[in-house]
Amino acid sequence: MEKYSIVNISIIFSRAVYSMYWVYLSPAYIYYMQEFSVPKSFLGYISWSFIFGSAVTQMPAAYLASYRGPVKVYLLGLFLLSFSGIFSAFSFNFQMLLITRIIAGAGAGLFFSTAGYVLSYINQKRLGFWMGVYNAAFAVGAITAYAYGMLYTYTNWKVLVSSISLFGVMVTLTDYFLLRRMGIKIEIDRNRPKITKNIKPILVAVAISGFWGTYYAAETLLPSYFAIVNGSVKFGNEVTIMLLVFSFIGGFFNYFYDVSLSKRLFLFITVFLGGIGFLMFSSKELFYFGLFLIGFFDEMAFSALYAISLQLSEEKYSAMALSVVNFINMVLGMWISIVFSYSMVYLAKYLWLLMFLITVIPSIPLLHKYFEPNKSK
């Protein structure tokens, strides 16, 4: 629908802004540690708190949207996500910081599926294209956030954090008035979304949860890790930007899943190669190649995860399939951030071996043909 082109751009831009709030505090973790005098090993709780909040609202968002409409829910999510950042910047203790990140995570959980649904609803004839852009916008926003985070070293980082948070509030208000002016009417299905009773997609999500957790931990904690190891938050930001760029590139190679003879083996191989990347972090010569493997195969693995989950689900349950998969990844994977931060302090020598094992071991059941989707689907 051409008349909705401005709305498309608005939602995609909001998606990029949304992704910024996942990681824009990561370059400031080390400053929070110094200000609140918390142990280095506690930094993982900041990452954990955001995912905890997001997991809590991940599935309720679908139910809330069926009653109040997806537009209202996604705008509420974006508002919570951005507005809470103001309080994150000026938290007066570590506990308040964690609470503000839980609230931000709750907003993220409300935004993701509902904004995606609005975009798909008004672009039913070009669904594949706009969903691809929607996913790509996440990487663009995260890269922007880390580039912005490099400024924290040179000026008042609290002012910068609160400024970008206010920017998100402005984007929310712009979306609100724009969508009202366009008069978008979204049909609401009042029937309760169905949750699959098929255990296979759930087990596949469990198998990939290790990689979900190790990637998220690396994405949010690498700046702090390098600040502790070599005193350079800037280098950690640069490395994380490279990781996200490699992930963005990997998203353009999802075609290989479609042509693979075995979907489950394709998924296992992408996870395994991503895990190998963590092992390479132990070598200065192989570090950047390992960074490439983690980023590139992360995007491929999770695109494959979403596809295989839908293929394993009955059609009438597909509406909730991705929400269930995301929920499981979050619930199981969020704890790895805590493991990462404790390990980088107390088990630094074995950190990357541990990340490899956490990534690969849960995925081993994918080698069994039980997880192969029916070729007729």
CATH class of the largest domain: Mainly Alpha
SS-based class? mainly alpha
Count of the separate structural domains: 2
Shape: globular
Mean residue pLDDT: 86
CATH architecture name of the largest domain? Up-down Bundle
Distance between the termini: 29 Å
Sheet-strand content, in percent, reads under 5%
The largest β sheet comes out as:
none
Q: What series of H and E elements makes up the topology?
A: HHHHHHHHHHHHHHHH
Poorly predicted segments: none
Structure explained in plain terms:
- The protein is an all-alpha fold and 377 residues long.
- The protein has two domains: 1-193, Growth Hormone, Chain: A, CATH 1.20.1250.20; 194-377, MFS general substrate transporter like domains (Growth Hormone, Chain: A, Up-down Bundle), CATH 1.20.1250.
- The chain has helices at 5-23, 29-36, 44-58, 60-68, 70-89, 94-121, 127-149, 157-182, 199-230, 233-250, 255-259, 263-280, 287-312, 318-333, 335-346, 351-360.
- The longest helix has 32 residues, at 199-230.
- The two termini are 29 Å apart.
Record keyword descriptors for this entry.
377 residues, Growth Hormone, Chain: A, mainly alpha, 16 helices
Could you give a quick summary of the protein structure above?
The chain is an all-alpha fold and 377 residues long. 76% of the residues lie in helices and 0% in strands. It has 16 helices and no strands.
